[in-house]
Automatic annotation (TrEMBL):
UniProt entry keywords in alphabetical sequence: Glycosyltransferase, Transferase
Transmembrane parts of this sequence: none
The organism's taxonomic lineage, starting at the top: Bacteria, Pseudomonadati, Spirochaetota, Spirochaetia, Leptospirales
Pfam family, one: Glyco_tran_WecG
Protein name: Glycosyl transferase, WecB/TagA/CpsF family
Cited InterPro entries: WecG_TagA_CpsF (IPR004629)
Record-linked NCBIfam families: wecG_tagA_cpsF
Domain of life of the source: Bacteria
Molecular function, one GO term: hexosyltransferase activity
C-alpha cells in the first residue's frame, strides 16, 4: 500500500499558505467564556482555527516560561470525542476527572455536534483529530517546535517518520517509540520524553490505552501539549485503510469502522446509551 500522503491536502505543507500568519491574528482571549458542558464533557464553542490558534498561543507561553525558567504549565491534554468515546470516559471517574481538566476536548464525531444542538449549546463545527494534529505539525515545522511520536508498531512509526520528513523537511522529531511499554520500556520512554523535552507529544496507542497511559504519567511529562490521536498513526502512515472522505467529513468514521469490523458491534450499544442520555439531559436535566 502506498504510504505517501502528499496527495491528501490535510496531510501536507506543500502549499503557499503561511501557517503562522494563518493563525497569528485569531483572538482567543475570550475562549474561556465560550466553554460549555455537554452531558459530562466540557467543550469550547470554537472552530478548528480557534483551537489551533489557542494551542499555538499556549505553546508560545510555555516556550517563554522555559526560556526564563519561571513556573510550570504542566501537560496540556487534548482528547477527541465521538459518542462511543464519550460513554467510555463517562463511566470512568479518573478519566472523567482528567478530561474535565484537559486543555482541549475535540468534537470529532457527528454525534457530539448533534448533542450540542439538542442541549441548546451548539458547537460551530466538527473538528477532525487528524486535521487538528496535522495543523500542529505544520505549526511545529514553521516555528521549530519539537515533536515526540509514541505508539503503534515500529514499522508503522518508521513509515510515519518517513512521511513527515518527506512532507515537512526539517521537522524536529526528537524521539519516537512504539506503544509496547511493559516493564522497563515504560520507564525508558518517560526518561526519553523528559530528556528531549518536546513541545508536542502525540500518543498513538489506541484511544483506550492512550488515555490510561496519559492519566498514569501526565504529572511526569513536563510542559508540553499531549495529543491522544488514538489509532491515527496507522492511518497517517498508510498502513490502514481510511474511511471515505465523505464519511470522515460527516463525522461517522466510528460507524464505518464498526460496519467493517463487525466484532465491534457492542459499540453500537454504547452509542445507544449515549443517545438516551442525550435525551435525558435535553428533557429532564437541563444544565447551564
Amino acid at each position: 500500500m502506498r504510504n505517501d500522503f502528499s496527495l491528501d491536502p490535510v496531510l501536507t505543507n506543500k502549499d503557499d499558505s503561511d501557517p503562522i500568519l494563518e493563525y497569528k491574528n485569531i483572538d482567543t482571549s475570550l475562549l474561556a467564556a465560550r466553554w460549555v458542558l455537554l452531558g459530562k464533557i466540557p467543550f469550547y464553542q470554537a472552530t478548528s482555527a480557534d483551537l489551533v490558534a489557542h494551542s499555538i498561543h499556549r505553546l508560545d507561553k510555555m516556550r517563554e516560561k522555559k526560556s526564563k525558567s519561571t513556573g510550570q504549565f504542566g501537560a496540556q491534554l487534548v482528547f477527541p470525542f465521538d459518542p462511543y468515546r464519550y460513554v467510555w470516559v463517562r463511566f470512568r471517574k479518573r478519566m472523567l476527572k482528567m478530561v474535565d481538566e484537559s486543555f482541549i476536548n475535540l468534537p470529532d464525531g457527528a454525534g457530539m455536534l448533534y448533542m450540542s444542538r439538542a442541549l441548546g449549546k451548539p458547537l460551530p463545527e466538527l473538528i477532525s483529530m487528524v486535521g487538528y494534529a496535522m495543523n500542529l505539525i505544520r505549526i511545529a515545522h514553521a516555528k521549530e517546535y519539537t515533536v515526540f511520536l509514541l505508539g503503534s508498531r515500529d514499522e508503522v512509526l518508521e513509515k510515519l517518520y518517513t512521511n513527515f520528513r518527506r512532507s515537512f523537511a526539517g521537522l524536529r522529531i526528537v524521539g519516537r517509540h512504539n506503544g509496547y511499554l511493559k516493564g522497563a520500556a515504560g520507564e525508558r520512554v518517560l526518561e526519553a520524553v523528559r530528556k528531549t523535552d518536546p513541545h508536542i507529544l502525540f500518543v498513538g496507542m489506541g484511544y483506550h490505552r492512550g488515555m490510561k497511559w496519559i492519566e498514569q504519567n501526565r504529572a511526569q511529562l513536563g510542559d508540553l501539549i499531549v495529543v491522544n490521536v488514538g489509532g491515527s498513526f496507522d492511518t497517517l502512515a498508510g498502513t490502514k485503510t481510511k474511511a471515505p472522505h465523505s464519511v470522515a467529513a460527516a463525522g461517522y468514521t466510528w460507524l464505518w469502522r464498526t460496519i467493517n469490523k463487525p466484532y465491534r458491534w457492542h459499540r453500537l450499544l454504547l452509542v445507544a446509551y449515549w443517545f438516551f442520555e442525550t435525551m435525558y439531559f435535553k428533557f429532564f436535566k437541563k444544565e447551564k
